[in-house]
């Protein structure tokens, strides 16, 4: 049952990639397919990051451990789409002109911020295995709180890309703000009390 | 290696210039005072109005009436400039009145009412008035002009427009000696333009653009009513728009309802939002970067994943010979 759930999540996370790749392959990606993939992989990475960050509150709320079981997987999917987003930028926007990359990295704030967020996600991805958890011990948790900083940088990156209408950005920012609010200790404790652990309930 | 040489006695289709086109070209070249647009007629002049997917000549009566007398290929683009497919030019648009995604205009612009349509011409002119498109075009014959279009976002297309020189209209309304700039305004109609209903748009509707009077009078500046041998699709700025080929695309304002001749430099939509990123002039210039990206190169569309089609951006989008004199003595780093 839980294995099926994990496989289903795996399949679902693969869907955006398959869909956008199919769109481009079948000629529906428009006249600039590289830009199309760049934008859609970027947005997918942000959505997956928000989904990943909603798992802990969902688990507290429902007490279903299935949410915790797919957290690492979804975190790695987030990182994968972020890497695809970067690859699109390098291949299709810069045309692999690495001197232009150097220029962008020095001069353009939204590129710097996006790159920093990706490096953070990289650090989280490489320390997501059991071996790293063991070695890092208590520091692991502190390190993985960096995901909140990454989220802030991703939103800033997106905000600085917006040119004409911030409506779409605002939707993501509001979801992010809501997820962060759920982590305020007072709120978080209340969330846990909605459906108390069975053992606790019996004792009470 | 075998090199095939064509027998000189056999003339190909592309060697024949129809008489009408020949005269149109002579007339245009004279009018443009030898602006160096006399590039050789490219292949298929006879097939000038035949574009894939396009119903040739379709449009409102004021358009079809003029269709028999179009000066085809009055201006052509460079040898390497392949005309962008019609489907791409009509489904990859920045027209924020209809949404911010490139596909939004094609999806949402269908509901726009373009008949009837009037354009108010006012300000520092001797003969102000409200004109329908037919009157706006006047007696000047429609010309087809194949222009490069360079978007400020670093992509570009090549598009065959149909229109008349804006100068022809401006002369008819007789600018006064006080007229120094021309301000253009797009339709504001939130009921048909979903982008104008967004509460989070940066643009202060209606969209406004402006040109210096001498820029507006330049023979390359086109008052445009068609493309690809038909009238303008709504998402491309129907029924009447401006095309200024040596400036970034956003200067070529769409769906114009008002043209005002004014004394002072008008406020324009993008430079009001962010003057550091978008100047009043916004001439295509590979040496002046947009703060968020380089303008040195551009992606010529359509491209594919395997060939990004990156080409060097040309000064004034390749129209330097024709327009550089407008800016002699100006510091283009400062007046970007």
UniProtKB/TrEMBL annotation, chain A:
<keyword id="KW-0288">FMN</keyword>
<keyword id="KW-0813">Transport</keyword>
<keyword id="KW-0249">Electron transport</keyword>
<dbReference type="InterPro" id="IPR013130">
    <property type="entry name" value="Fe3_Rdtase_TM_dom"/>
</dbReference>
<keyword id="KW-0408">Iron</keyword>
<protein>
    <recommendedName>
        <fullName>Protein-methionine-sulfoxide reductase heme-binding subunit MsrQ</fullName>
    </recommendedName>
</protein>
<keyword id="KW-1003">Cell membrane</keyword>
<keyword id="KW-0472">Membrane</keyword>
<keyword id="KW-0349">Heme</keyword>
<feature type="transmembrane region" description="Helical">
    <location>
        <begin position="146"/>
        <end position="163"/>
    </location>
</feature>
<keyword id="KW-0285">Flavoprotein</keyword>
<comment type="similarity">
    <text>Belongs to the MsrQ family.</text>
</comment>
<feature type="domain" description="Ferric oxidoreductase">
    <location>
        <begin position="41"/>
        <end position="154"/>
    </location>
</feature>
<comment type="function">
    <text>Part of the MsrPQ system that repairs oxidized periplasmic proteins containing methionine sulfoxide residues (Met-O), using respiratory chain electrons. Thus protects these proteins from oxidative-stress damage caused by reactive species of oxygen and chlorine generated by the host defense mechanisms. MsrPQ is essential for the maintenance of envelope integrity under bleach stress, rescuing a wide series of structurally unrelated periplasmic proteins from methionine oxidation.</text>
</comment>
<keyword id="KW-0479">Metal-binding</keyword>
<keyword id="KW-0812">Transmembrane</keyword>
<keyword id="KW-1133">Transmembrane helix</keyword>
<feature type="transmembrane region" description="Helical">
    <location>
        <begin position="76"/>
        <end position="96"/>
    </location>
</feature>
<feature type="transmembrane region" description="Helical">
    <location>
        <begin position="36"/>
        <end position="55"/>
    </location>
</feature>
<dbReference type="InterPro" id="IPR022837">
    <property type="entry name" value="MsrQ-like"/>
</dbReference>
<dbReference type="Pfam" id="PF01794">
    <property type="entry name" value="Ferric_reduct"/>
</dbReference>
<comment type="subunit">
    <text>Heterodimer of a catalytic subunit (MsrP) and a heme-binding subunit (MsrQ).</text>
</comment>
UniProtKB/TrEMBL annotation, chain B:
<protein>
    <recommendedName>
        <fullName>Protein-methionine-sulfoxide reductase catalytic subunit MsrP</fullName>
        <ecNumber>1.8.5.-</ecNumber>
    </recommendedName>
</protein>
<feature type="binding site">
    <location>
        <begin position="96"/>
        <end position="97"/>
    </location>
    <ligand>
        <name>Mo-molybdopterin</name>
    </ligand>
</feature>
<dbReference type="InterPro" id="IPR036374">
    <property type="entry name" value="OxRdtase_Mopterin-bd_sf"/>
</dbReference>
<feature type="binding site">
    <location>
        <position position="93"/>
    </location>
    <ligand>
        <name>Mo-molybdopterin</name>
    </ligand>
</feature>
<dbReference type="InterPro" id="IPR006311">
    <property type="entry name" value="TAT_signal"/>
</dbReference>
<feature type="binding site">
    <location>
        <begin position="252"/>
        <end position="254"/>
    </location>
    <ligand>
        <name>Mo-molybdopterin</name>
    </ligand>
</feature>
<feature type="binding site">
    <location>
        <position position="236"/>
    </location>
    <ligand>
        <name>Mo-molybdopterin</name>
    </ligand>
</feature>
<dbReference type="InterPro" id="IPR000572">
    <property type="entry name" value="OxRdtase_Mopterin-bd_dom"/>
</dbReference>
<keyword id="KW-0732">Signal</keyword>
<keyword id="KW-0500">Molybdenum</keyword>
<dbReference type="GO" id="GO:0016491">
    <property type="term" value="F:oxidoreductase activity"/>
</dbReference>
<dbReference type="InterPro" id="IPR022867">
    <property type="entry name" value="MsrP"/>
</dbReference>
<comment type="function">
    <text>Part of the MsrPQ system that repairs oxidized periplasmic proteins containing methionine sulfoxide residues (Met-O), using respiratory chain electrons. Thus protects these proteins from oxidative-stress damage caused by reactive species of oxygen and chlorine generated by the host defense mechanisms. MsrPQ is essential for the maintenance of envelope integrity under bleach stress, rescuing a wide series of structurally unrelated periplasmic proteins from methionine oxidation.</text>
</comment>
<keyword id="KW-0479">Metal-binding</keyword>
<feature type="binding site">
    <location>
        <position position="151"/>
    </location>
    <ligand>
        <name>Mo-molybdopterin</name>
    </ligand>
</feature>
<feature type="binding site">
    <location>
        <position position="241"/>
    </location>
    <ligand>
        <name>Mo-molybdopterin</name>
    </ligand>
</feature>
<comment type="subunit">
    <text>Heterodimer of a catalytic subunit (MsrP) and a heme-binding subunit (MsrQ).</text>
</comment>
<feature type="binding site">
    <location>
        <position position="186"/>
    </location>
    <ligand>
        <name>Mo-molybdopterin</name>
    </ligand>
</feature>
<dbReference type="Pfam" id="PF00174">
    <property type="entry name" value="Oxidored_molyb"/>
</dbReference>
<feature type="domain" description="Oxidoreductase molybdopterin-binding">
    <location>
        <begin position="113"/>
        <end position="270"/>
    </location>
</feature>
<comment type="similarity">
    <text>Belongs to the MsrP family.</text>
</comment>
<keyword id="KW-0560">Oxidoreductase</keyword>
């Amino acid at each position: 049952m839980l294995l099926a759930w994990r496989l289903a999540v795996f399949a679902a996370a693969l869907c955006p990639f398959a869909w956008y790749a199919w769109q481009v392959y079948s000629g529906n990606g428009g006249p600039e397919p590289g830009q199309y993939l760049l934008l859609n992989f970027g947005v997918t990475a942000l959505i997956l990051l928000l989904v990943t960050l909603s798992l802990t509150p969902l688990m507290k709320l429902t007490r279903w451990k299935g949410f915790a079981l797919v957290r690492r997987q979804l975190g790695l999917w987030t990182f994968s789409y972020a890497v695809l987003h970067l690859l699109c930028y390098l291949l299709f926007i810069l045309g692999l002109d690495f001197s232009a990359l150097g220029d962008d990295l020095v001069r353009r704030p939204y590129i710097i911020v996006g790159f920093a967020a990706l490096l953070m996600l990289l650090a989280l991805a490489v320390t997501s295995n059991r071996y790293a958890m063991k070695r890092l011990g208590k520091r692991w948790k502190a390190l993985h709180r960096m995901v909140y900083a990454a989220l802030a940088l991703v939103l800033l990156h997106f905000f600085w890309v917006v040119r004409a209408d911030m409506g779409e950005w605002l939707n993501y920012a509001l979801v992010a703000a809501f997820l962060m609010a759920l982590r305020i200790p007072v709120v978080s404790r209340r969330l846990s009390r909605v459906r108390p652990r069975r053992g606790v309930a019996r004792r009470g | 290696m075998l090199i095939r040489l064509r027998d000189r006695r056999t003339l190909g289709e592309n060697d024949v210039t129809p008489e009408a086109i020949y005269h149109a070209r002579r007339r245009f070249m004279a009018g443009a005072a030898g602006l160096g647009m006399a590039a050789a007629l490219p292949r298929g002049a006879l097939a000038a109005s035949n574009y894939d997917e396009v119903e040739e000549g379709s449009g409102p009566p004021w358009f079809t009436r003029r269709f028999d007398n179009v000066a085809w290929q009055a201006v052509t683009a460079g040898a390497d400039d392949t005309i962008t497919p019609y489907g791409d030019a009509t489904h990859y648009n920045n027209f924020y009145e209809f949404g911010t995604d490139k596909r939004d205009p094609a999806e949402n612009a269908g509901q726009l009412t373009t008949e009837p349509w009037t354009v108010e011409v006012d300000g520092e002119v001797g003969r102000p008035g409200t004109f329908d498109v037919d009157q706006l075009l006047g007696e000047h014959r429609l010309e087809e002009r194949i222009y490069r279009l360079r978007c400020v976002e670093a992509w570009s297309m090549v598009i065959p427009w149909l229109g008349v020189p804006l100068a022809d209209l401006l002369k008819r309304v007789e600018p006064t000696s006080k007229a120094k700039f021309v301000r253009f305004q797009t339709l504001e109609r939130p009921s048909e333009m979903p982008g104008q209903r967004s509460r989070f748009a940066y643009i202060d509707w209606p969209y406004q653009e402006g040109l210096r009077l001498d820029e507006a009078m330049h023979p390359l500046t086109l008052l445009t009513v068609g493309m690809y041998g038909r009238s303008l699709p709504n998402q491309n700025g129907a029924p009447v728009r401006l095309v200024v080929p040596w400036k970034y695309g956003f200067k070529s304002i769409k769906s114009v309802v008002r043209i005002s001749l004014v004394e002072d430099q008008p406020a324009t939509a993008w430079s009001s939002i962010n003057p550091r990123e978008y100047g009043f002039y916004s001439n295509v210039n590979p040496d002046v970067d947009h703060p968020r990206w380089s303008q040195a190169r551009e992606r010529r569309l359509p491209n594919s994943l395997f060939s990004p089609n990156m080409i060097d951006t040309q000064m004034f989008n390749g129209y330097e010979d024709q327009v550089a004199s407008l800016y002699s003595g100006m510091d283009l780093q400062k007046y970007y």
